[in-house]
Design brief:
The chain is mainly beta and 430 residues long. Helix content is 6%, strand content 32%.
Length: 430
Amino acid sequence: MRPLSRSWLALSLGVGSALAAGCQPPDSSGTQVNESDLVSTNGLSIINGLTMTNGLSMTNGLTMTNGLTMTNGLSSTVGLMTTAAGRNTVSYLVRCALPAGTTITKKDQNGTSYSFAGSIGLAPEWANGGCAQTCQQLVSACMLAHVNTAAVHVPIYMVAQAPQIGWGQNPAYPNQEGTFFGNIFNLNTVGHIDAYYCNGPGFNTDVVAGRIGSAQSGAPYRNMFASGYCNINGCVASDAKSSGAPDGYKACTMGDGATRAWNNSITVWRQNKALDSSGNVVAGKTADGKTVRYDFEGNTSGWTSSNSALTLSSCSEKGAQTGSNALKINYTSGSSTVRILGPSGLSLPGGTNVNIYLYVASDSQVTSANPFVRTGGSNESMRSRSSSTLLKGSWNVVTASVPSGATGNQVGFEFQTNGAFAAYIDGVTW
């Protein structure tokens, strides 16, 4: 767990609560968890210059050889200090690089002074000196982790190998969004900026305007993995784990110039809450703006099992996507294929994507987890997911689709297993 003395924003989370029947208390050594570092808010609409051909060391007035606090470290006549967007970039640079309690003041071209506060402290040496490779990569990863090209503020929780951040998951941020890495200060061997990410399994792409995904406009980073997900593309997982799941990734290999292993990455975890432009939670919506159809708050929302060895209950022991409860699926017998079904009588048009959040324990004997949609009679559209593609011990989003020309009337889930298991689903949307 990361040292709490390095905190910059305190967050106290009470995890003790009354649990529904059939649930066990959440894993905890007490009734309160003090998670106090690196809960941050993104909202950096662009990283000035990154969508063009200039890295931060080029023509925008910021150099790596002079410290941020030095007179010539941030020019007042050209570059970042001369525009509102540029000064916003500076605020994130300082937030990422310098520690809490450190403030620098710089002037714009009109002589107006602006103060910028440090927070995370990934590169304190940059205050009065140079920023070498490790410094550049750490600040780059932090900047990329804060990007939201739509300027929507979304709370994020960051973990990393860097001791200034450290490992450790936060139960209030249950979904691994992605891992960010690269070097935004220089051009690579083919004249591009090394700015990359890979997807975590906790979201589909493009779930919040301006965050991650190839469809957003003005994104400064790219995901060059064919399948997208960090956990199945050779990224090196953290040694630290929570509930058997890696807290993040300490290295990923990627690049369109000289492909290389990036060893100074930052992994972001997120909540699955929809926020309006003022940052207020929108009830009944997930982060991608979809309406929650089944959230299992206090009951099973009409989902059933026909197998006596498989029981369902509303439970808070693994957290939830919306609200506080998820549907616990507890199977107590041997090797088999077992199913659960939601209420019938739906009318889902062809092409509808049904998203279901799934949690499978790290020691589970489940071999595949397969969401499906029934389209009449015995016809089903199923999306098979091998357990090897899931991040066990964590929430994963899985999807089933209604075929074109068909109508979906019921949603279900199939598990193939070699023995007893417990799994959880929540936040079913379409």
